[in-house]
Amino acid sequence: MPSYLLFFSILLLLFPFSTQLQSSQAWSLLRLQRLLNYPPFLSNWNNYTDICYAEPNPYVTVVCYEESITQLQITGNGTSSPLPQSFSINSFFTTLARLPTLKVLSLTSLGLWGSVPAKISRLSSLEIVNMSSNFLYGIIPREVSILRGLQTLILDHNMFAGHFPDWVSSLSLLAVVSLKNNTLDGPLPDSIKSLESLRVLDLSLNNLSGPLPDLSSLTNLQVLNLESNYFGPDFPSLGKKVITLVLRNNRFTGGLPSSLSSHYMLERLDISFNRFVGPFMPSLLSLPSIQYLDIAGNRLTGMLFQNMSCNDGLVYMDLSSNLLTGSLPTCLSSNLKNRVVLYSANCLASEDKSQYPNSFCLNQAFAVGIFPRKQKKVSVHKTAAVAISVAASFVGAILLVGLLMVFLMRRANTRKAMKIPPRRLTERASNAYPSKLLADARYISQTMKLGALGVPSYRSFSLEELEAATNNFESSSFLGEGSHGQMYRGKLNDGCLVAIRCLKFKRRHSSQNFNRHIELISKLRYRHLVSALGHCFEYYLDDSTVSRLFLVFEYVSNGTLRNNVSGDGGQKLTWTQRISAAIGVAKGMQFLHAGILPGLFSNDLKATNILVDQNLAAKISSYNLPVLTENMKNEVVSGISSNGLKEHSGRAIHGSKVDIHDFGVILLEIITGKPITLHIDVEMMKDQLRASMAADGAGRKVSMVDPLVYKGCCKESLKTVIEVCAQCLSKEPTDRPSVEDVLWNLQFAAQVQDAWRGDSHSSEGSPITL
Ligand SMILES: *[C@@H]1O[C@H](CO)[C@@H](O)[C@H](O)[C@H]1NC(C)=O
Ligand SMILES: *[C@@H]1O[C@H](CO)[C@@H](O)[C@H](O)[C@H]1NC(C)=O
Ligand SMILES: *[C@@H]1O[C@H](CO)[C@@H](O)[C@H](O)[C@H]1NC(C)=O
Ligand SMILES: *[C@@H]1O[C@H](CO)[C@@H](O)[C@H](O)[C@H]1NC(C)=O
Ligand SMILES: *[C@@H]1O[C@H](CO)[C@@H](O)[C@H](O)[C@H]1NC(C)=O
Ligand SMILES: *[C@@H]1O[C@H](CO)[C@@H](O)[C@H](O)[C@H]1NC(C)=O
């Protein structure tokens, strides 16, 4: 008898998660089912099912954590009509409020109707809310501002009215706000400027109007979609990280700001169907990231030349219905597969019948009172052209009126003909998104290009699995021991190689205390990071607190950056490969700082902490994770609270400059090809670098630079990298450049090097063997 008992109690301790859902929460779910009028997709919920362990199904996701529901997602089938008259939104939220542990709430296309009641504030743990495609109306209740943990708020395709809520400023963690297709009106309030974490703001298809506040303080803003509102007249001022900017169909007038050509992360720019005038900047065609550019239906002027360059990644380009002259750049007309180029109704030299004669565009430009502003490169043509147009327009003032009418009529026609739906850029696969908990925040991951990652999705591992993978943590699988615990190499059942970090805790904590940490770790997935694959807890048998935490990472096979640049023997990277490795590290660093929330800073970057994979892509392997540092300091491992996050951001600025300095040291090693292990070496070499930069003669430089590099590099490219390196190593943190500046310069160095290689026909593809 006693041995049976012992067996069962051990069993219970081993599986702390298999306990039943609290019955009160189960009752609430059943009540929700009734309030939703027993939809077919909830038919398997009844008194006897353990809802937490129900069969997964595309309409319903319930995630429980230790007897409480943390995630509830119910999706109707899209063709839903409003629930019957008897439905009460008030009772619905009263029932929801009995699930106070909910972090993710997604109730879409369910036919919910009514005005969201103030008691939504009782769901105080909410982080992600998606209630798209319902029939919710009235204002968005002010009480939402009490949900301090809220990161994502999506209320698309409803009938919310009133102004854009000005209380959003009290939600300091907000990263995604999407209120697409409602009937909001009035201006965008100034308070939005304080949302420093904001990455995505989608207000398309509303009745918002008026001038935009200065959005340049939203330094993390990546997606701004204002399509089909009445915003204007001035072009918004924005931070430099914008990836998607859609101003289509608003009331913007005036010229495009020249700063637009410095948005080098911009992938999608749509300013079509506004009233923009003045010169179109051809440099927009060659922005390094641009993929989608639509300026149709404005009155932009300027002359295009065949020899202008454009970004290879540009897949959609619409210049239609502007006042452009000259000829289409050959880089656009070269028929790249899958590339769409539209340019009807301009004055371009082309077979296309919709083009007007040159004089027409010049007269039009004159008629709207804007002369093409003088551009340096084309000034000769321009002044001549303007002189002609001035003369022409005095002579032909009457003709002009006629022309105008023809133009308007033809334009109306071309508009009709132009109804080609804008091509959707291929959705980035979302299956690689780490934690189920955050599956709904796909937006964030999409913009961060997480989908391209070729590693399995994040999950939790069983201890048995890890023991099997490492042959019971045998010594042959031991990789080493750092300040943050031991590392093992393992091979999973499916043949996948992994690196396993083992953390032993000095104090006892329940696994619940680790929730936040696990959430953060699960976000460490990016091409230039050694990505997290999952975790595993080991428990003490007596009180089922956590004894060890195993973190499973991808195994990167090709050695450290030091092995590949400055170590003994072996193949060494060429200059081209070194720059691309440096770009990789910088991108990884940028992701750690701004791609996850909270960002990770002071990551102890060094050549031995950067790993290189079989494609020679550099991956950062050291993270300043709170769970690691707190454990080292023997502090209580607490959840990262919202307050913690604020303090964290205070240290962020300092921490990011620490990383930049460490990055400078890595660059130094890349340039010199010598392992740098001592601080004093850095100081000395930095001085040498400075001296060599000052001395223009090549002789001094050769002595500093790795001979392997010097042989195969373009001097302009090398000079750029040396300059970046010196800046990164500045003594004053404030003198060090931002990650963005570093990336910009390195990308420039890569381009120059590429062009040079093209010219010199040197075959430099494979690494040089020592
Ligand atoms: C579930 O329990 C409720 C309350 O006890 C009861 O009214 C209902 O009939 C039960 N449903 C089923 C299917 O047993
Ligand atoms: C979708 O909804 C409609 C109307 O609510 C319903 O008739 C239909 O059976 C539903 N389809 C599925 C697959 O649930
Ligand atoms: C806007 O929402 C309505 C329902 O509220 C929907 O019928 C319509 O298709 C949506 N429009 C767009 C452009 O998504
Ligand atoms: C929004 O603006 C459109 C166009 O002006 C108008 O038809 C519509 O009634 C407006 N909606 C609301 C709710 O004000
Ligand atoms: C491009 O061509 C124009 C005229 O065809 C010429 O004036 C200009 O210098 C060229 N620019 C470059 C960079 O070759
Ligand atoms: C919100 O829910 C809708 C409907 O399920 C879904 O299509 C959309 O992708 C969700 N939004 C985000 C950002 O995940």
Automatic annotation (TrEMBL):
It is found in: Membrane. Residues 1-26 form the signal peptide. Residues 473-748 form the Protein kinase domain. One of its GO terms (molecular function) is ATP binding. GO terms for cellular component: membrane. InterPro entries: Kinase-like_dom_sf, Leu-rich_rpt, LRR_dom_sf, LRR_Rcpt-Like_S/T_Kinase, Prot_kinase_dom, Ser-Thr/Tyr_kinase_cat_dom. The keyword Transcription does not apply. It comes from Iris pallida. The chain crosses the membrane at residues 384-409. Its main location: membrane. Keywords: Glycoprotein, Leucine-rich repeat, Membrane, Receptor, Repeat, Signal, Transmembrane, Transmembrane helix. Gene3D superfamilies: Phosphorylase Kinase, domain 1 (3.30.200.20), Ribonuclease Inhibitor (3.80.10.10), Transferase(Phosphotransferase) domain 1 (1.10.510.10). It comes from the Eukaryota. Pfam families: LRR_1 (PF00560), PK_Tyr_Ser-Thr (PF07714). This is F-box proteinisoform X1.
